[in-house]
Amino acid sequence: MSTDLDTLAREKLSHVLRDHPDPASLDLGENLVDTYGITSLNKVLFLTSLCRAADIGLDNFTEDDLAGMRTLGDVVDTLRPHAAPRG
Amino acid sequence: MTASIINRIITERPTHDGSLTITALGHRTTVPLSSFHDRARAVAGALHRRGVGAGDRIGILSANRLEWVLLDVAALMLGAQTAGFEPGKFSPGADLVRRYGLDALYTDTRLPDDAPSGVLPISTVADYAEEDPDGFEPEQWTATQCTTVKFTSGSTGTPKGLEATVGSIDSSLNAVQSLFAHRPGDNILTFLPLSLLQQRYWLYSALHWGHDITITTYQSVFAVLPSVRPTVVMGVPAFFDTAKRHIEGVIAGGVEPAEAAAELFGDRIRYLWTGSAPADPATLGFYGEVGLTIFEGYGLNETCITTKNHPGAHREGSVGRALPGKEVVIDAEGIVCVRSDHPVNTAYTYAAPGESERMFQPGGMVRTGDLGRLDEDGYLYILGRSDDVIVLDNAKKIIVRPVETRFRDTGAVAECVVYCPSPAGLVAVVSPHPGPVDTAAIRDALAAVNAVSERDERIIRVIVADEPFTVEGGLLTSQFKPIRKQIAGRYSDRIDDPKAGLLVH
């Protein structure tokens, strides 16, 4: 599942970014604001899209959680415990 | 004038079924407005017992939350004034208390060690709401009394403080209601800071006219929109631009436009409200194409809502006609001036010397500083800011807003602010979109903009900002408007360096 979530997260972040870079090129450790220039409004759109695609309830997270998601890796790590295993 | 709405909402417990929802990521609370009224009265009683009363001033420095609006309505009941401070722009220390004459200050930020005794956590208000109102009865306001101090959001430097009269609030509420007829079944969603008085108008409207209201935050708004299913969304251009890009992406993935729009905004939208900054015509057109009606309006803190497109009178490209109780006049210099039957005020309470005189004219007229024109049917078109007029060596005046809008509308940049540091020509500082900067696209956009600009309006250099302009970074107001002076300050070295940035070849 973690691989699925990684892939989905990359795809959804690429979707939010204007030039839709190759999802594989996105670095899990880079800062979403400093490196990818994501705004607060885009960040919550990204999380919303990712949760919908991964079938994870948005109500599992708070604004503090969102603030703590500084990198793509943070996002994946925060969401992973809530992701249902897939066969 | 008819009975004051403010006086009615604090005196009369709602008998309708309207409700208030406070929500954000991870939480949602809905209370009937009748119950909200009871709690606000309890808060008023608790404050009264703690020595806060008519004529006092209560500061609120907090993100949007239930206690914010409980305090606001409780202060109205007490005859006390509120001063709403935008989070992140003020600190809850002794200086704030002293500077603005606060008798109490409630905040959600960590209290400094030397906080005065009147500075309290806003969570305290939830406890007040559980107390017995103990026979407390609301005060009544006169039309010229001021319920609140509102602060400009800072697009022109240090925030100015302006007290708002009850008459102006009543007048605006009645005028907006006459245009949009908000009613039971409507749910108005608002997410901008409650320190902006107009955001609280929707609560007052809900208390009076019985519709629902949802208050959230800009950090959470897109997460809660679909499940809240509002009928009206109060937004600003940057919000609608971001939503547009998202919906376009969903449509590109094969989803029907109306379905893609409903996926984000919910399926009950009656109309979208935009104001506070000029909307991109392409954005306005987009919402029409996906089946969502959007109405642009115009107003300043100093005038309150002045013009508005609405279902009964809507003209593309304009910001609508004057509301009942407002008169718009274009003066000899082309500047929009606004006269109100019930002025917000006739001077700032907190401002540098001369600021009040520049804005507030004799006869209740406010000289906005915006350049505009009226068409033959009274629709107002905003052309730019008079402050943003650049006078060239050849005495030609350039209104920079159309140049900036032209650049932004290419889609290559999120925002554009133009300066004229030397006679050599205009220099643009642009805010890139999130993600890697596409220099080639920005160069192409520059060429396209210059190709349709008059010679003196051509941009000779483009400074690409190091990161997108953001509210948190101090380069956008809370309503997402670029802060021209701050941007100039941040990038002054490069603006003044003739070799910096992308040059026109």
Describe the structure.
The complex is a heterodimer of chains A (87) and B (505). In chain A, 51% of the residues lie in helices and 0% in strands. Chain A has 87 residues and is an all-alpha fold. Chain A has one domain (2-82): Non-ribosomal Peptide Synthetase Peptidyl Carrier Protein, Chain A (Orthogonal Bundle). In chain A, α1 (2-16) packs antiparallel against α2 (40-54). The model of chain A has no long low-confidence stretch (mean pLDDT 87). Chain B is of the alpha/beta class and 505 residues long. Chain B folds into 3 domains: 5-195, Rossmann fold, CATH 3.40.50; 204-340 and 365-385, Rossmann fold (3-Layer(aba) Sandwich); 392-503, 2-Layer Sandwich (GMP Synthetase, Chain A, domain 3), CATH 3.30.300.30. Chain B contains 16 helices and 26 strands. In chain B, the strands form 5 sheets. Chain B has a 9-stranded mixed beta sheet, sandwiched between helices. In chain B, strands 6-5-3-4-7-8 form a 6-stranded mixed beta sheet. In chain B, α1 crosses α3, α2 crosses α3 (66-78) and α9 (237-252) crosses α10. The longest helix of chain B is centred in the first third of the chain and has 17 residues, at 33-49. Chain B is globular, with a radius of gyration of 23 Å. Chain B starts with a helix and ends with a strand. The mean pLDDT of chain B is 92. The chains are: A mainly alpha (87), B alpha/beta (505). The interface between A and B is medium-sized, with 29 and 28 residues.
Structure in a nutshell:
Chain A is mainly alpha-helical and 87 residues long. Helices cover 51% and strands 0% of the residues of chain A. Chain B is α/β, with parallel strands linked by helices.
